[in-house]
Amino acid sequence: QVQLVESGGGLVQAGGSLRLSCAASGRTFSGGVMGWFRQAPGKEREFVAGIRRSDGGTAYAESVKGRFAISRDNGKNTVYLQMNALKPEDTAVYYCAATTRPIIMGLVPRQSAYDYWGQGTQVTVSS
Question: In the 3-class helix/strand/coil scheme, how is 40-91 assigned residue by residue?
Fold first, then answer.
């Protein structure tokens, strides 16, 4: 089992920045993928960004490309999401997800590809 704990959410004004962290514990794994998803009120959960632990390959949703950056520190079993130029429409609960399986990059945006999920952290962007 892998436990995921997110941190770093909060309230920020439009145009501001936040950095989310997701620390993994439990089963040790070196491969697989970690990702970020978000769910806004009244909307379905959607993919934000993902990173392959082995080679750092990344994938982003079109809505966040050029503004968000995902990175990982395998030694700390932690993945980060740097969010810049935040917009009110980025307001959501952000969830960290992980799989220990080596999935292809094309599956990274799919929720069904992930086996473990965190509890989520709230990000609120005021206008």
Answer: CCCCCCEEEEEEECCCCCEEECCCCCCCEEEEEEHHHCEEEEEECCCCHHHC
pLDDT at residue 28 above 90? no
Contacts of 89 (CB under 8 A, 6+ apart): 40, 63, 125
Task: Identify the band that residue 5 occupies on the pLDDT scale cut at 50, 70 and 90.
Answer: very high
Q: What are phi and psi of 80, to 5 degrees?
A: -120, 155
Distance CA 70, CA 49 (A): 7
Residue 83 CB contacts under 8 Å (≥ 6 apart), including other chains: 17, 18, 19, 20, 64, 67, 68, 90, 123
| Residue 24 · residue 39 · CB < 8 Å | no
At 65, give phi and psi (nearest 5°): -60, 135
